[in-house]
Amino acid sequence: MSNIFKIAILPGDGIGPEVMKQAIKILERIQKYIKKKITINTYCIGGIAIKKYSDPLPRVTLEGCEKSDAILLGSVGGPEWDHLPLHKRPEKGSLLKLRKHFNLFVNLRPSFFYKNLSILSPLKEKILNKGFDIICIRELIGGIYYGPNGIKGKGINEHAFDTEIYSRFEIERIAHIAFNIALKRNKKICSIDKANVLQTSILWRKILIEISQKYKSVKLKHMYIDNAVMQLIKNPSQFDVILCPNLFGDIISDQCAVITGSIGNLPSASFNQNYFGLYEPAGGSAPDIAGKNIANPIAQILSLAMLIEYSLKERKISVKIKNAIHKILNLGYRTKDLSINNSKEKIITTDDMGTLIMESIK
Ligand code: NAD
């Protein structure tokens, strides 16, 4: 086994390069705690790659990722490229391709609540008082987004269709990942479906129940998607691991994000069977604030922490990073997006937030 761990760095567009710079500071700081030597190589992706190579995911980038052990991505896209056809746009032309190419069928979106930032959440205080710490696991490369689709016919006969197909294999592999994650947390899974209407959901639920027999210590619960979106608003503290097929996961993971009140704090991870993964902030390239040194780098730094936990398997180091972030937030340091105009808060730049977190890693 190699003693070197290679990370492909893809800063991308908008705030991507600014927040990535902060994650690299953290990487340099934690090297001393990690057994393997970490090496990084930076590649173009998204709009910047369209400018340079006329391709949002150039061959050199894909090959660089193939030679790496994990990918850390900033974000892609922006108004400059919105006029392009969908398949040539940075998002579809690079992110969906990367997911498919590396078979990244698991998507993890943690959503937790920082007590000091409760005012940013749209939820009422009495709901937030119970706190929440949820991880949403979304099946990422199957289901309705990848089934046969099209728009056919003309005039009154014009019609469109999207098809949801899930195989036993696809459901089993994501289920095992979810049960294993639940084992390391509070041993609870809530599986989201629409088994009162959809055949794919009936199969999904049946297989989940079968697999649960192998993980007797984990409590499995099922919830219809329509009820789940209500429950998440009424009482998020009831959830721990939420497992969803692709479409429902798309909806629920964004809802999990909004109840925290701060998209700039939320990381995500997508990985395959071998835990080769792509780690990126849950938000986009935020073109409205790009280049101003005011973006919040926490989502990018937490994405790195997830990379360290899941791909590098150094959970303790990832906890060190999370603790450093808590410490800095508890001291009142905020980027502009986290500001609540409170006299105790200290508004700082992207660069300063990165440096303060880096210096707090002990
Ligand atoms: P966005 O997430 O980029 O921005 C939404 C709002 O959140 C903006 O006001 C932005 O300033 C703010 N925001 C986001 N991240 C922040 C951060 N780290 N710090 C402070 N504020 C932050 O979503 P959008 O405006 O819908 O999309 C902008 C571009 O990003 C589009 O081109 C979109 O396609 C792309 N996008 C890319 C990804 C990705 O790369 N994975 C994901 C979503 C959107």
Task: Describe the overall structure.
By secondary structure, this protein is an alpha/beta fold. The protein has 2 domains: 1-105 and 268-362, Isopropylmalate Dehydrogenase; 122-259, Isopropylmalate Dehydrogenase (3-Layer(aba) Sandwich). The chain has 12 helices and 14 strands. It has helices at residues 16-30, 47-53, 59-66, 90-101, 125-128, 168-184, 199-212, 225-234, 246-260, 298-310, 315-330, 350-360, and strands spanning 4-12, 37-42, 70-75, 106-112, 133-139, 149-152, 159-162, 188-193, 219-224, 241-244, 267-271, 277-281, 333-334, 346-347. The chain has a 10-stranded mixed β-sheet, sandwiched between helices. Strands 6-7 form a two-stranded antiparallel sheet. Helix 1 (16-30) packs across helix 10 and helix 10 (298-310) packs antiparallel against helix 11 (315-330). It starts with a strand and ends with a helix. The mean pLDDT is 95. The site of nicotinamide-adenine-dinucleotide (NAD) has 22 residues, from helix 4.
A few lines on this structure:
The protein is an alpha/beta fold and 362 residues long. The chain has twelve helices and 14 strands.
